[in-house]
Design a protein that fits this description.
The chain is an alpha/beta fold. It is 30% helix and 19% strand. The protein is built from seven helices and nine strands; from the N terminus they run E-E-H-E-H-E-E-H-H-E-H-E-E-E-H-H. It is globular. The relative contact order is 0.17.
Length: 244
């Protein structure tokens, strides 16, 4: 029986291949969240879905696979970008089946924080017809905001992998406003994040990933939120165990 991984007509639907059997001895299915994805599927609601979890929990692997199944390069960009330096992606996208809804948007973008520096070089070497910012002459955060301004401009399908990596508190609020605008116009977003600020976007669906696999969560119930609240309330309780 086929199980939809996510469904939001007319945007996109993704399901395990009919012949797919999750072998937990084979990476990335050794990651509980990925094994659950292959065995049970997952519904991606309209609007924004956040994947939240610790390093190594599988959230970026899942976003990468969804982006590649949709047609994006593993290292980011639009569906027409073919930037590649050192392939390191999993084969998860090949183990999934993508269906585009009739009338769904053709535009989309994959913003991957760890590869953006080399992607800016790719953009310089493959200029578009429209004027472009000189991304390498900007700060890390400024360049991310320029990408938001020039690429996140229509109600398409957007995958983001830890976009908060370059952003200050105020810039993260700008990203929240951008995601809200995109989805209010009919777009859809899948985002992996460590940021309790970003994950607080009203109306977003939150999926917490970890040793349990994947589970829906409310923002106020996230381990991430509890940890930040505890630390900010009394940082000395943490630091006294780390600093002599």
């Amino acid at each position: 029986m086929r199980r939809d991984i996510f469904r939001q007509p007319p945007v996109v639907a993704l399901s395990p291949r009919d012949d797919e059997v999750a072998d937990r001895r084979r990476w990335p299915a050794t990651i509980p969240a990925v094994a659950q994805l292959l065995e049970e599927g997952l519904t991606l609601d309209p609007g924004v879905t956040f994947l939240v979890g610790e390093n190594g929990s599988g959230k970026s692997t899942i976003v990468e696979a969804v982006a590649m199944a949709y047609g994006f390069s593993a290292e980011g960009g639009s569906a027409s970008a073919r930037h590649s330096t050192r392939p390191s992606e999993s084969d998860l996208s090949e183990r999934l089946r993508l269906q585009r809804g009739v009338g769904g948007p053709k535009w989309g973008y994959f913003l991957r924080a760890e590869t953006m520096h080399s992607f800016y070089t790719y953009l310089e070497e493959n200029p578009s017809d429209r004027p472009e910012p000189i991304f390498h002459e900007m700060s890390h955060g400024e360049s991310f905001l320029a990408i938001l301004d020039t690429r996140f401009d229509s109600p398409g399908f957007y995958c983001l992998d830890e976009p908060e990596a370059a952003l200050s508190f105020g810039s993260t609020l700008t990203l929240i406003a951008t995601l809200h605008r995109i989805t209010s116009e009919g777009g859809q977003v899948l985002c992996a994040t460590h940021s309790p600020i970003l994950a607080s976007l009203p109306g977003a669906k939150i999926i917490e990933v970890g040793e349990w696999g994947m589970r829906p969560s409310r923002w106020e119930d996230l381990e991430l939120v509890a940890q930040w609240r505890s630390y900010l309330a009394a940082p000395e309780r943490y630091l006294r165990h780390l600093i002599d």
